[in-house]
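re: ur msg from earlier - yeah i can do the glutathione complex, just paste it... oh wait u already did. ok heres what im feeding in:
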Amino acid sequence: MSKVASNNKNTGIDLYTWSTPNGRKVSIMLEECQVPYRVIPIDITQGDQNSAEYNAISPNNKIPAIVDHDTGVTLMESGAILMYLARKYERLLAPIGKKYWEQMEWLMFQMAHVGPMLGQTHHFVKFNPGKAPYAEARYRKENMRLYQVLEDRLDRREFICDEYSIVDVATWPWISRFQYQQMDLLDYPALCEWYLRLSVRPPVVRGYSVPQELTIPVPEEELL
Ligand SMILES: N[C@@H](CCC(=O)N[C@@H](CS)C(=O)NCC(=O)O)C(=O)O
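and the outut:
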């Protein structure tokens, strides 16, 4: 049986995803928009992303992807999907103007730096420790540098671009992997506060558990 199921009703949004930071950006956004959607798990640990069927939806063979049966739009790339949903449902994105460009600046920062670099930390520091000391040191250092950029940005700001936006939705799932990155979030007080602020939003809690039911990680001190 095909793992890439089709939507028999041909209406609404299909979300192709797995339990990863990039996947969660989109499930959280769909929850924020309060729209119904159908989840199609693509198990990237089993190679589901490499099937020809999925390639027709996501030409780069990565999750997440969406098919919007109401508009005929099929999209890969989490940043593009967030912008699409924000525009369609008029949520979490400013109208074009100064604030919009600030949001684009920080969304691109997430897409170009936070995601790709922290993803490398996971590979070398968590999954392959001791195999490549140079890479471990390089990504550990870059991880710390990026946390500091966000710490500086969030110092005296509630959200990355002042009001809650797709920039926070895009960035939070990567910080939620602070344990994978062996980062002590408590060393970054403003970032930690922002992380905890988002962690209790019901759409974030629901979106985090797509497609698998999981608990949001909490920094150590909070557990005491
Ligand atoms: N820039 C892409 C990155 C997507 C991405 O790297 N997805 C990962 C999971 S977080 C994936 O599908 N990995 C499977 C693979 O590399 O084969 C986005 O933001 O959507």
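cool cool. The chain has a mean pLDDT of 95. ping me if u need the other ligands too
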